[in-house]
Amino acid sequence: MADTVPLRLNVPEPEVRPGGKPDFSRVSIPKAGSVDRPPVDVAPEAIRDMAWSIIRVMNRKGEAVGPWAGTLTPEETLSGLRDMMRVRAFDKRMLMAQRQGKTSFYMQCLGEEAIACAFRKAMSDGDMNFPTYRQQGLLIAGGYPMVDMMNQIFSNTKDPIKGRQLPVMYSSKAHGFFTISGNLATQFVQAVGWAMASAISRDTRIAAAWIGDGSTAESDFHAGLVFASTYKAPVVLNIVNNQWAISTFQGIARGGSGTFAARGHGFGIPSLRVDGNDYLAVHAVAKWAIERARSNLGPVLIEYVTYRAAAHSTSDDPSAYRPKEESDAWPLGDPVERLKNHLVAIGAWSPERHAQAEAEIDAEVLAAQKQAEANGTLHSGPKASPRDIFEDVYDVMPPNLRRQRQEAGF
Amino acid sequence: MADTVPLRLNVPEPEVRPGGKPDFSRVSIPKAGSVDRPPVDVAPEAIRDMAWSIIRVMNRKGEAVGPWAGTLTPEETLSGLRDMMRVRAFDKRMLMAQRQGKTSFYMQCLGEEAIACAFRKAMSDGDMNFPTYRQQGLLIAGGYPMVDMMNQIFSNTKDPIKGRQLPVMYSSKAHGFFTISGNLATQFVQAVGWAMASAISRDTRIAAAWIGDGSTAESDFHAGLVFASTYKAPVVLNIVNNQWAISTFQGIARGGSGTFAARGHGFGIPSLRVDGNDYLAVHAVAKWAIERARSNLGPVLIEYVTYRAAAHSTSDDPSAYRPKEESDAWPLGDPVERLKNHLVAIGAWSPERHAQAEAEIDAEVLAAQKQAEANGTLHSGPKASPRDIFEDVYDVMPPNLRRQRQEAGF
Amino acid sequence: MTMIEAIRDAHVVAMERDGKVVVFGEDVGYFGGVFRCTQGLQEGFGKDRCFDSPINEAGIVGTAIGMATYGLRPCVEIQFADYVYPAYDQIVSEAARIRHRSAGDFTCPITIRMPTGGGIFGGQTHSQSPEALFTHVSGLKVVVPSNPYDAKGLLIAAIEDDNPVVFLEPKRLYNGPFDGHHDRPVTPWSKHPLGEVPAGHYTVPLGKAVVRREGSAVTVLAYGTMVYVAEAAAQESGIDAEVIDLRTLHPLDLDTIVASVKKTGRCVIVHEATLTSGFGAELAALVQEHCFYHLEAPIRRIAGWDTPYPHAQEWTYFPGPARLAAALVEVMES
Amino acid sequence: MTMIEAIRDAHVVAMERDGKVVVFGEDVGYFGGVFRCTQGLQEGFGKDRCFDSPINEAGIVGTAIGMATYGLRPCVEIQFADYVYPAYDQIVSEAARIRHRSAGDFTCPITIRMPTGGGIFGGQTHSQSPEALFTHVSGLKVVVPSNPYDAKGLLIAAIEDDNPVVFLEPKRLYNGPFDGHHDRPVTPWSKHPLGEVPAGHYTVPLGKAVVRREGSAVTVLAYGTMVYVAEAAAQESGIDAEVIDLRTLHPLDLDTIVASVKKTGRCVIVHEATLTSGFGAELAALVQEHCFYHLEAPIRRIAGWDTPYPHAQEWTYFPGPARLAAALVEVMES
Ligand SMILES: Cc1ncc(C[n+]2csc(CCOP(=O)(O)OP(=O)(O)O)c2C)c(N)n1
Ligand SMILES: Cc1ncc(C[n+]2csc(CCOP(=O)(O)OP(=O)(O)O)c2C)c(N)n1
Ligand SMILES: [Mg+2]
Ligand SMILES: [Mg+2]
Question: Model ipTM?
């Protein structure tokens, strides 16, 4: 062994750090329309390469091209644009509200709007999402009232979850939105269980699991894949790769596999990779995956390639760990802009109507905010009841909690 | 959705259960010598197919053939045969000792002897194994005294771990054998950490992680792969696929991936599959993997295809869940018989010498047992000291334990 | 009926009454569990009501949670309580909190069964009693049956309960009421009145303790195996101890405890788990708070030592009748 | 110096003295941790002494264990104590037991740091105090510093200790001694004597409590943030309370506690964690056992309620000076 060279720890690093010039030349981006669309019952092995490619529909000219194009009418596409614009306007307002001290915390999904919005439109009522904190698009595109979201964010008297949870941790069974956990990845395997339950019950509903790139490193991700693979659970396993996990670039979670979609290959799960900033591509891929799951063909894994354009949360300042210009350099562009351009290109939309829609949506969000603020905000106005924290720990309050509630003076 | 067919849960089942006729026709077994031997610095992607194949060296005639042959001299091979015979004789004796009430519990590795024995010979002194309870071969092939193993099994006064642990849960740092845990899979990620430490320390030593087919479902398996992949840890990740996890066949852990080796593909880890009952193949593959790891080329994953010929442990009766004849039907044969035939085929061995070696080894094991029994067995003779259970909880005994030891009367 | 048979029977009753009850875990399907508590269920109810799971405790509990939020009532087995830790996050951060954090929008009616306790030469990883790690978690119920009758009734109640229930089965009691005299043969349940288990549906309510032995001198708080150790210690010491079998640790039947200690003026707590921060600490804290002016002696805790559960020396670790009897004598003398 | 700076300084001192000390965890490398406790370490010591880890707490602790058994001294960060549960199995079944189960053949000198406690509107997953889940596990040491001076000295001691140490940092104290008056501005550490932190190497020994406020009427047992709540409650109630800062929960400095309670005859325990089976239970059990004949009133526990830590109502949950003062008055009156 004398002539063996000493070992060295490999610590992956992003290409650039603050001060450096953003460089995404390593991200190879296939042409829109260039990736095949296999039949939904394709064998996983036959589409291996799709885990290293990127399904894209909109080309630079804004045209929808290739085999994945055509899953939405122009009206549906326009409604999709409006959903994304709503999400963006909502985020902007709530960020401001947090800065004004009306809530303790906020998380935007800036740049990632297409993913949840388009996915939601491919689902059916009754299907269930197990989301992370960055899928507000599922609620907004699903018609959940913005004012209820705001009530939650403001922890006010109409907060559906009674002030108990951190802002943005929504819950709505009726809207197919599982109660968000602050603990990363736990929902991933729960989604698989929900899907197994649907199969056990000879139901036709499917589940969708959501996770971030960084969180795929968590062990519950593995548990989800193991159970989904073994029982062929009717679940779509979504990985939102927005390049960052707080300050940590995706290479730390990903390791040597090249992509997150590749993780599915260890389990014989068909794995697709899609341009997460291309609303049409996301919709088409989601539709394909949901159809496959609902046809009892088992789970599908999808990696959405996107970029977290904003800070991780209001507690974060990304300029400490990545160049400010990185977001602009991101080669897949902005999802709202791109869908707008597409609609303009096909003659269904115009810059003027877009500006007008923006104004309408701003007004809509502002109206919702006024309505929500009337129910109070975190530090002023009416409040979620302190007495309420003793409820719902159990279905029936046990003696220890009754004693404690009394001691607390309620 | 009205015309959607109801979903159904897929619960994988083994081909046969007790009463059925064993059928391994699904196990496709490549010819010995037919799988290529790539250079150690090969790109993982280039050898993908090896995760669905089986590297084999010994053919039916007992010849060592193909590119993986030739890593051992006849003398080394003979010493390997003796190691396996020792392990087998040891297991047989200890099983009997358990039946005689000299210990509470025992676990054999019948049919799997080649794996640990051959792997050990490919390692260097200073390398560290993180084993499961079925790698006694690592100790025996590494020259750890049988009598010390027996002292542990009998929980007697010379038990190196002082009666504290279940039998077979050995520990020997000096022999590169990490203290076995009863909790499955925890060691897998620890091995990766040890390897990372070696790299951080600019050392040249590598680690080997061990896990069973069933235990790959555990989350620590994932944690191990994630960290190994990201930091390119110098570790060989060994999966012993002996077809069963107590009563559960390997399909429950494996799911849709076809093999366990495939798991590595999700992480860009080169993954090999080898005939676990072929001592020569195991040695060659282990050597390749260890060389790769030691050359700072990162982790390698190896799936050993074998069969758990005995009960899971002395607490188990496999006739309740698999046909008694299944073991005999196992198409990869018996590792001891096969290596013996090879040695006979190359003229280095004979049935007579084999019978003689068997007798010698039996005597050796019996002598060790006598020596160990002189130090006591679980229920008779001298005993591990009760006072000792208060030691080693911490480096220095804290006040609560001092009080308790006193209360216990020691 | 043995405790194993009673548990099996509880499953059958629950599964027959409610098609939403599903059962899974490691080796629980075809084989029926390493302790055989689920034997026959797969055959009787089909592979999608009872099945083998991969070896991933987080996955077992995590999928069960998903199923429960769908509307099923999973009852899952962790092969040994010692292996529940990988599932701890799913239990603590998820099962226990889903109702509260969603204000009842989602609920999580799951039962998590696991064999607990030592005395079978299982060493540190087949002997643990982790109940205190669950009693500290609001949102969970924690149950420890001590006999076949209770095991069946409590398990049915647990499965029917709308909250997550951790159900710890003292494995040393599976086949008979073990009192800690490991050198004597164990009486089988067939010879014990609590081995008489009615057919069909009944429940033993969660949250209710029971006085197993009336007495006036000192109250012994026990659960699981320790109930029989306490009975033996009372008898052998000749001290007229009142033995309370807690049955449910959370919610705790404090009324029964307080009434007894106020009557006897003395209290000894016994459990097999490690002493420090064990459930006995909570019991001692409550008893001294609620019975302070009635106490004539310090509350004593007899428990496993603050060490891992040893293999060869397990009877040194196990809080048997001799240790408990000595404590009773001591408490009577102080 | 703030507590964050003190912790950073402790890392620097430990890493400079011993090349075997390595530091990793989520966001701790380039960025220096979400609370910035490891800022500058990667730059100062290189990428293989301080680095970002994948988001897998079991992996962080599991690899740290492997490294420790190799011979390094890893000091790892769990981003919030609320996220330690996925690592619970590695801590409980492995780190805590390796020395014992191998009879000292392998040892596991690791430090697991984590910000703990609430009061920052973090909701149920950024506010928890899980210390009792570690004090029940023999083989672990459990430390909770309450000020910059101690934080540095205890952290250096923890890193140098040959046992696994769980090191809980009350995040509400990072920038100043918070006494529970959330409506008042917090005094920065620069204005507090315990914010004066010597340069270079020193240790505060594990296992030694300290009397923060001498008093004769009642003993208050506190740690972390509650030390300041206790001081405030004493002052505001006018009751001459003796406030003990435990600093290390395991091993516990029982002598200091017992001496104080024997002197005052009364005891109130306060912690932020949920009441039932919290560490206060163990303290109450010990105090009544060791000071029974000196106690003039029941020991009271003031703690977080048995609910998840709520977001908007966190000050209802938080055991502030008003609640503690009321308990002091009550204890004095009974
Ligand atoms: C179990 C657990 N560990 C750590 C955290 C702290 N944390 C919150 S978000 C986050 C990063 C997640 O990154 P990613 O999965 O990529 O999602 P993204 O924020 O990019 O959408 C971390 C480490 C947590 N919430 N839960
Ligand atoms: C965390 C944990 N869960 C469950 C068990 C119980 N258990 C012991 S061995 C075993 C089967 C393991 O099968 P496999 O990994 O295939 O290894 P083999 O026994 O076949 O060598 C199980 C479930 C355990 N020891 N630890
Ligand atoms: Mg991300
Ligand atoms: Mg196996």
Answer: 0.98
